[in-house]
């Protein structure tokens, strides 16, 4: 049995520049930091509270403050990205073909539930996924494996039978830590950023890629 687990941001939708812009405003304008675009990009993975701790150190904000900063950041992201909201090229067809072929599919994302709902419901694709694991469903997010082991368990498939679709190195590392191979969408990071990882099956620009199409 084979199963597909999709990361959401940057993998299903090409939205990481919008996350980066929203993080940069919160980190620099709201919180007085002085982070470069590259620093934001390299630290922008995992749960929002984990990003804030990586940038500002632990103990600087209470959980309530981090929740508020997170909501503020996600509101900006949704407001600015909605006019561009679309699946990556070829993904609509790939999801439909995989669904017809009976391949179980899940989402393993570091995003909060409201951001996942924003994508799935605006694009009417929720019915393809038998399991959805968000930031709220795991103790530690990527590169911890739980964002992928949990959806695999909910689908009832073994880790070695799952293929993860990801776009960031820390997500691919989470797949490796879960015992899973990954296909990388190069929306966000160049191929060389994944050099340290030995679980990458393939790099593709989008889902019209021949290797990806042949997975179904
Ligand atoms: O795990 P996913 O779906 O790529 O989501 C990751 C992103 O989710 C966003 O909500 C966070 O604010 C980002 O910092 C994070 O990188």
The CATH superfamily of the largest domain is identified as HAD superfamily/HAD-like
How many domains? The number is 2
Main sheet characteristics: 6 strands, parallel
Shape: globular
Kindly report how far apart the N and C termini lie: 12 Å
Total helical segments: 9
Mean of pLDDT = 97
Radius of gyration: 17 Å
Low-confidence stretches: none
Proportion of residues in extended strands? 5-15%
Order of helices and strands: EHHHHHEHEHEHEEH
Name of the level-1 CATH class of the largest domain: Alpha Beta
Textual characterization of the structure:
43% of the residues lie in helices and 12% in strands. The chain is globular, with a radius of gyration of 17 Å. It has helices at residues 16-30, 37-43, 48-56, 63-81, 91-100, 113-122, 146-155, 169-177, 210-213; strands spanning 3-6, 105-108, 131-133, 162-166, 181-185, 200-204. The protein starts with a strand and ends with a helix. Helix 6 links the parallel strand 2 (105-108) and strand 3 (131-133). The longest helix is centred in the middle third of the chain and has 19 residues, at 63-81. The chain has a six-stranded parallel beta sheet with strand order 3-2-1-4-5-6, covered by helices on one side. The chain has 216 residues and is an alpha/beta fold. It has two domains: 3-15 and 86-213, 3-Layer(aba) Sandwich (Rossmann fold); 16-83, DNA polymerase, domain 1 (Orthogonal Bundle). Helix 1 (16-30) packs across helix 4. The structure holds 6-O-phosphono-beta-D-glucopyranose. 6-O-phosphono-beta-D-glucopyranose (BG6) is lined by residues 7-10, 19, 44-45, 48, 51, 109-111, 115, 171. 6-O-phosphono-beta-D-glucopyranose binds at residues 7-10, 19, 44-45, 48, 51, 109-111, 115, 171.
């Amino acid at each position: 049995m084979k199963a597909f687990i999709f990361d959401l941001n940057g993998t299903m939708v090409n939205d990481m520049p919008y996350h980066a812009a929203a993080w940069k405003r919160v980190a620099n304008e709201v919180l007085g930091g002085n982070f470069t675009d590259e620093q934001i990009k390299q630290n922008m993975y995992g749960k929002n509270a984990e990003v804030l701790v990586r940038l500002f150190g632990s103990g600087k904000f209470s959980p309530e403050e981090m929740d508020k900063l997170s909501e503020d950041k996600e509101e900006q992201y949704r407001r600015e990205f909605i006019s561009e909201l679309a699946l990556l090229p070829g993904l609509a067809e790939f999801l439909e073909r995989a669904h017809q072929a009976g391949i179980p599919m899940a989402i393993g994302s570091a995003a909060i539930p409201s951001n996942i709902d924003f994508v799935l419901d605006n694009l009417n694709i929720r019915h393809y996924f038998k399991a959805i694991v968000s930031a709220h469903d795991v103790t530690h997010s990527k590169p911890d494996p739980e964002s992928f082991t949990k959806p695999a368990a909910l689908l009832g498939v073994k880790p070695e039978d799952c293929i993860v679709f990801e776009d960031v190195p820390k997500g691919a590392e989470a797949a490796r830590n879960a015992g899973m191979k990954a296909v990388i969408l190069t929306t966000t990071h160049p191929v060389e950023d994944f050099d340290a990882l030995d679980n990458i099956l393939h790099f593709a620009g989008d889902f019209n890629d021949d290797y990806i199409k042949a997975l179904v």
